[in-house]
Design goal:
By secondary structure, the protein is mainly alpha-helical. The protein has one domain (about 15-220). It is about 50% helix and about 5% strand. It has helices at about 10-15, 30-40, 45-60, 80-85, 100-120, 125-135, 145-155, 165-180, 180-190, 210-220, and strands spanning about 190-195, 200-205. The chain has a two-stranded antiparallel sheet. Helix 2 (about 30-40) packs antiparallel against helix 3 (about 45-60). The radius of gyration is 17 Å and the shape is globular. It starts with 8 loop residues before the first helix and ends in a 10-residue tail after the last helix.
Length: about 230
């Protein structure tokens, strides 16, 4: 049986979601994803969009003291918001279940453009830009330390380091999804974002890439030993 087939995805994602009440920091993803998935491209509230994105990133540690963003105001994101508003709505239809060659190329193109708009003075980009891609589009997990540690162990024999967004890393994520498709699809189908104003669940499902992100992140932060759970 494939080592990619995991038996603990439900457990790890449920543990993650237990910390996603409306006032919890994990729900900052919901508010960010809701905002950008549904915002009106013809009448973009740039200030609100900058604030929503900025607080989401702050919730996930992107404004900590070691980050160059701590020296920036949210207006730093204005060119990024204008770029996001210029994209076709079909970009929000990309998810791990349709990682075609074209869609993977689109992901890498968007990554490159956002890096150009956000990163200054050769600062590191991988974690920050993938956090933005996850929060805005939901089409790729965030390649932070926790996710990377988990998936480098899973893909030990595939030479997939998850240290850059490229065809290799996206293909590995696609392989992980395909090995666990039934479970990931089921979780995504019954997991909905939280509405900011009401605190109630919306009709917007979590993307499948977010389910994979939660698994990789929570498995590492919970310090659960990664074993071959397919056995």
């Amino acid at each position: 049986m494939s080592i990619l087939l995991r038996s603990d995805i439900i457990l790890q994602t449920e543990n993650f979601l237990a910390k996603s009440n409306p006032n919890d920091r994990y729900s900052s993803f919901d508010y960010c994803y809701n905002h950008f998935k549904t915002f009106d491209k013809s009448n973009v509230d740039i200030e609100k969009s900058c604030l929503v994105l900025g607080f989401y990133l702050a919730s996930w540690g992107m404004f900590r003291g070691s980050s160059f963003l701590i020296q920036k105001s949210v207006k730093h994101f204005q060119p990024l918001i204008l770029y996001i508003a210029s994209l076709e709505k079909d970009i929000w239809k990309i998810d791990v279940d349709n990682y075609s060659d074209k869609n993977m190329a689109n992901i890498m193109e968007v990554y490159s453009k956002i890096k150009e708009l956000v990163i200054t003075d050769n600062n590191t980009d991988l974690t920050l830009i993938t956090k933005i891609l996850l929060g805005v589009f939901g089409f790729v997990p965030a390649f932070d330390q926790y996710f990377g540690d988990t998936f480098r162990q899973i893909f030990t024999h595939e030479n997939c380091g998850f240290r850059r967004v490229n065809v290799k890393s996206l293909t590995c994520i696609k392989q992980f999804y395909e090995a666990n498709k039934i479970v990931i699809d089921n979780i995504a189908s019954r997991t909905f974002t939280t509405d900011f104003l009401t605190g109630e669940k919306t009709v917007v499902n979590y993307p499948k890439a977010k389910i994979i992100d939660m698994y990789g992140f929570n498995l590492r932060t919970s310090k659960t030993p990664l074993v071959n759970t397919s056995l």
